Inverse folding.
């Protein structure tokens, strides 16, 4: 595992109901590999010391799909129905009591995210870091948020927009990852995409 000179916790947001997808994405298993497990593995391989997984919809069932690893902690976002902001807030609250310098935030519906993208964003940041993967200039994930930003970010979170407005307003460093992939999340199940097309 790659180590960084500061302590980073991976934060995997996986609380949503996945209404457009057809069910919670935390429960998706494709070709024998669960999206939750692959998201956790990516964050650990990128260099995070531990990972906090934020669950909500079908949390009990989703938790059974996670590896038995002492570096992985599951929390429940009680207000997950309110959108991504509630999940991110729950995750930040969970790590705030610890000594970690930053969180590297990713989403469960990015099963094709290359570990190299996460490593690039992780970079050599620290408590003051604010870095975001971009794909041909389009903002995406993962996002590195240093501890110095947590309280202000938490106060700004509303609805389903997550940290996007905060990152833009506070000059997040764009880390180009377009050579590694397109950064798109999986919004609809394959059969739903086919029906829509």
């Amino acid at each position: 595992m790659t180590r960084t000179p500061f302590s980073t916790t991976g934060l995997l947001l996986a609380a949503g109901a996945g209404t457009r997808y057809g069910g919670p994405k935390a429960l998706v298993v494709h070709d024998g590999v669960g999206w939750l497990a692959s998201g956790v593995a990516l964050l650990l391989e990128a260099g995070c010391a531990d990972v906090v997984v934020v669950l909500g919809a079908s949390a009990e069932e989703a938790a059974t799909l996670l590896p038995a690893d002492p570096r992985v902690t599951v929390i429940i976002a009680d207000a997950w129905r309110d959108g991504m902001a509630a999940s991110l807030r729950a995750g930040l609250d969970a790590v705030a009591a610890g000594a970690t310098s930053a969180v590297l935030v990713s989403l469960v519906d990015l099963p094709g995210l290359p570990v190299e993208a996460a490593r690039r964003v992780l970079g050599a940041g620290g408590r003051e870091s604010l870095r975001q993967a971009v794909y041909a200039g389009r903002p995406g994930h993962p996002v590195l948020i240093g501890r110095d930003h947590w309280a202000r970010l938490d106060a700004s979170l509303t609805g389903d927009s997550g940290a996007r407005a905060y990152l833009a307003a506070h000059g997040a460093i764009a880390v180009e990852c377009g050579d590694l992939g397109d950064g798109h999340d999986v919004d609809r199940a394959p059969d739903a995409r086919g029906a829509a097309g």
Q: What stands out?
A: The two ends are 41 Å apart (CA to CA). The longest helix spans residues 84-96.
